[in-house]
Amino acid sequence: MKHNLIAGEWVAGTPSPNINPSDTSDVIDDYHQAEPAHVERAIAAAQDALGPWSRGPLQQRADILDRVGAEILQRLDELADLLAREEGKTLREARGEVTRAGHIFRFFAGEVVRQTGQHLDSIRPGVEIDITREPVGVVSLITPWNFPIAIPAWKIAPALAYGNTVVFKPADLTPGCAWALAEMLHRAGLPAGVFNLVMGRGSKLGSTLAGPGVDAVSFTGSDGVGRGILRAGAEHGFKVQLEMGGKNPLVVLADADLDLAADCALDGAFYATGQRCTASSRLIVEESVHDAFVELLKEKMARQVVGDARASDTTIGPVVDDRQLQSNLAHLARAQAEGATLVAGGERLQRGTNGFYQAPALLTETTENMQINQEEVFGPVASVLRVSGFDEALAVANGVRFGLAAGICTTSLKHASRFRRDAQAGMVMVNLPTAGVDYHVPFGGRKGSSHGPREQGSYAAEFYTTVKTAYVRP
What we know:
The chain is built from 14 helices and 24 strands. By secondary structure, it is an alpha/beta fold.
């Protein structure tokens, strides 16, 4: 049984089983769900710990984060197995995610002592100005199930590095990696109350996490919940950072290397079971190469192995749970009812264990206004849109309310340069999958995908700190 961590103590709640989506008979462990009163206690503990932690020795912070990063990397195989078992990522993908989490903690261990400010002369004689950054305060961190250790890492590590205290709620579908991370942080020497873990459903705990007593909320998840947090931030006056998904385009022009383009589409659309906010869900293909591209992608899809996430030959794991699987199937049915053609996959699959298996799906003959091309599916589903050339491709790519990532496959420097400039997205990839980002550079989008400062890298300071300007007459 795994308990919540509040004020340095492990606190019981209501046990809830963590189920393996590759084999629903496999219960990983029981993780205790918190009540709103537990969240209130965690916020109070974080408030009490803020002053000593934010003013404490920088080396203490750096050493704690470095110890956690080192332990994550030392336990790579164990944590990757846990991640694959509870979320459904293949072991290869899980190893990559765990490695990234370790690197994130080590990066922010260095950021602790790389914080800078400015010293300026005033326009008034004899007056000096110091511009510094201070912790924003008590931070609620709410993370999704699709990256159960990397996304917590890229929120927790900078929050602590810049001197904040944390109340962390992971997704209720994937508490295992979050609990393991909390246990490492606890053993690494964090003072009581600096980091608190509360597990449970967002519908039950969310209003307390995004309510009075917190100074900032960082949330990654659905558009509807994110907008509710934004309204709460306006009401209660806390800082808000939101990542709310995408409907990402991958443009394939006639001059592209089609084999490379198909590989980019396969990776971006279907790996990680398509359960990535950066997934290439819209494949926008120039008409003269449309049919050849579709056939090539279908061939590559046919070679994929859908199965148990921990099996050595699996390339695509299960969908995270039955609710998500039924949502994927409903999106496919709606697309076909609107006129799309399902040319590959999409069906639920049966394997040796009772899991949530789905064949990757490819739709053609789709149009911009179809729901499949406007709403995020969050599954192994990609739709193809046929366009006449670059100008139409760019217009279609920008024609949604999201703007997280956008990709283009082309050998034209002119088109690549214009796409980088004019794509309405926070991240642009040229001859690369739209999914796949580095830990030391900013992550985030535009339009309905994101709100507030960017995540990751040194840009994380924009959210986790506040600027102070001091005037001094010596």
